[in-house]
Amino acid sequence: MYGIRLTDSGLGDEALRRAQAQIAELDNVLLSRFQVVGNYVRYDEYARNILKDMRQKILEGFHESSKGRRNYLVWGEPGCGKSYFVEQTADSIRGVDYDEINLSETDEAKFRTELGGTESSPQQTLCLVDEVDAKPGEPWPYEVLLRHLEAPRSASKHVCFILAGSSGNSLDDMVARIEKRPKGLDLLSRIPVENRVSIPSLTFGDRMIVALCQLLRAGSEKGIQVHEVERLALYYLTVNPHLSSARHLRDFALRCVQRIPRGEDRIKFDYLFSAGDAENKEFWNKTQNLHKQLANSFLLVSPGQAYPETKKEAKEAHQRIAVLPLSSISPDPNDEYFADGMTEELISTVSKIGQLRTISRTSAMRYKGTKATLKEIADELNVDAILEGSVRKAGSKLRINVQFIDVQQDEQLWSQSYDRELEDVFAIQSDIANKVADALHVHLLAQEKQSIESKATSNIESYTLYLKGLHYRGERTEEGYKLAIKYFEEAIKKDPGFALAHAGMADCYERMGEDGMLPPKDSFPRAREYAVKSIQLDGSLAEAHATLGAVLEEYYFDMAAAEEEFRAAIDLNPNYGRVCHSYGAHLACVGRLDEAIAEIGRAQELNPLALEVHDCAAVIFNCANQFAKSVDACDKMFSIDENYLPAYQDLAEAYLEESRFDEAIQVLQKAVTISKGASTAKGRLGFAYARAGRESDARKVLKELEQDSKERYVSPVAFAVIHCGLGEKNEAIELLERARQERAGGLLSVKVRPLWANLRSEPGFKELVNKIGLNTPPPANP
After folding, report:
1. What is the pLDDT of residue 735?
2. How far is 294 from 297, CA to CA, in rounded Å?
3. Residues 6+ apart with CB under 8 A from 260
4. Burial of 676 by CB count in 10 Å (0-12 exposed, 13-18 middle, 19+ buried)?
5. Which of 153, 229, 242, 290 has the most neighbouring CB atoms within 10 Å?
6. Residue 504: helix, strand or coil by DSSP?
């Protein structure tokens, strides 16, 4: 084993006492609290923030690859986990491969071959060139590397190079050494100063957290769920100088878990040593004075759920906030659009703070003009803090009053009045977001701060038109969408490079196509055109990626490409509720129901009052045969709007699968009445009649739909579902194929929706499912 003396630990007596005290005080450890990325953890918050900033910049580089390669120079002492951090970063970015080349272990020919292999791979790649400061007497390393640090014009993918080393005592020392090497200055010229990062050395706290992480990982790989670790065992692991790197700790942890008896879920001090190992007794004897605090005393450790240790940590564990609609006190009532638009923009800006969970616009705007108290609103939205205020616009003058309130503690965290010119609106938004973060003690990553403080456009007239577009889009009516498109178009004319206005256009056309307000051929291609243009202008807009994903799925049936866009949107803004909803629906449609349930749960948290989110949840639960949960989702919809048609349809589907035919028919009869004969409701009613054995009633509904189709568009899906219920499988499949050709709505869920269960064994239905792309394998790195 690793025979040590405590004086050899490298920590010193005072540090050892601090280590002992710190471990003794630990009670519950939540490893995810210390997570940087993937399984890479750091105890020190400063170190975590540095590395999270770097990971975010790397992610942005892949989303904005058209702007050229972003390369990095990293210095860190041996054992600080440089390579593991880069590997975990690559693994966390969907669709990105990881390559590692160690300069000290290669020669010129092999180095050229390895770099060429990285470039020739079809996948986007994060490539670590480790020990880049090795071979100081050789001229070829940097000559070979230089041409790869800039993307050739013909490059069809993005490669990010991380050059890492540990020479000298600091990053500056390593840079000075590189400068003196052949082509060293040229190499450094390809790496901006802001992309040169010093990774802090591992502290005692880091070694403690890394040790726990490796024990849990090793246990998981052996099928053991470790829940507790003896404090003396943790003390040994963290003060042992031979276990100072994650790699050493991992090897040690793997051997340790092999000694855990069957049925045991804790790591004891004795499990660290093989039978007869003299070091066990030696260390035990040398730590007699610690046994009272550390021996036979266990701390809880968890990778997931939090066990807040202090009131401050308990408070910070929530971090759920809502931005309520700003009230308009402008003298001109026509300026109400400005307050609504500012509300939506503030929600968007605050949602860019990754450590917060910000309630989405749809739910927040339901409180416009409400008389509910802040406590009632906080309880309904399950938030702890609320931002509210007012806007007064008079010509080019603005007066904005805001206050940020901790509702649970009934405490005003911050308030401010802004008397500014209209052109200062971006500065006001970013200042509010920054002060929200400060009030909640949230560290802003560099990329988050840059995103919050960026100006969407330098043309204030264009921005005012954009706010008008947001106001009318929020009405979610055909007329509202048309007016929104008008104002977004005018905004683009004033500033053709205004990416958000292009994203707004894309969203309107996609929604109008989805809701049947425009023919699919007139809506979805336009939505795609504007979404692509928006991404070209600004690849960091989650909204544009989400809309593009929806279009690729609904109209082009390109499920793999759609999933890549949904994932990109979530990576860019995990608080964007609409993409969580869309991605949840996508996962359900392709049959990944467990993932779909998790994703729609996130959407419900971010948008608890959004009818369409609960509708999607009800459908997913029906597909997963969780009918009680589907009924719960329907009850939530009825509590928000008792006349919401999808709630009736979802409830009837749940009843049908439980053979409660009479109740399903009653629900669908009401749905037909409140929707004034919507074809979707009639189709389901006909299906219910057929399932209940009332064939004549089912055929009567078929005739009604045929008559309706002479006066208005009726989707082939409405006819198909009745034929399906009647057992007329060929007719149902032919109608579904026609619906596919027409790009009619309601097709994407055919693979998993119980309505179509009796068709699933039919060859024609299987062919249809394949044509829609519902059996397409997911993209790499799901």
Report:
1. 95
2. 5
3. 219, 222, 224, 267, 271
4. exposed
5. 229
6. helix
* DSSP at 449: H
Helix, strand, coil fractions of the chain, as percent rounded to 5: 60, 10, 30
CA end-to-end span of the chain: 40
Token pair of 649 as six digits:
């349809």
Tokens 């390109």 found at: 558
What's the pLDDT score for residue 227? Answer: 85
Q: CB–CB of 596/587 below 8 Å?
A: yes
Residue range 229-283, pLDDT digits in tens: 998 988 888 888 777 666 777 778 888 888 888 778 888 888 888 877 888 888 8
Its pTM stands at: 0.62
Q: Which residues contact 763 (CB under 8 A, 6 or more apart)?
A: none
Task: Please give the single-letter amino acid code of residue 661.
Answer: F
Residue pLDDT, tens place only, 681-718? 999 999 999 999 999 999 999 999 999 989 888 889 99
The DSSP letter of residue 607 is -
| In contact, 723 and 732? CB cutoff 8 Å | yes
CA distance 665 to 668: 5
Specify whether the CB–CB gap between 527 and 520 falls below 8 A: no
**How far is residue 715's CA from residue 272's CA, in Å, rounded to a whole number?**
67
How far apart CA 764 and CA 265 sit, in angstroms, is 51
Q: Are 542 and 572 in contact (CB under 8 A)?
A: yes
Given a cut of 50, is residue 308 above it in pLDDT?
no
**What would the two tokens of residue 97 be?**
């491969």
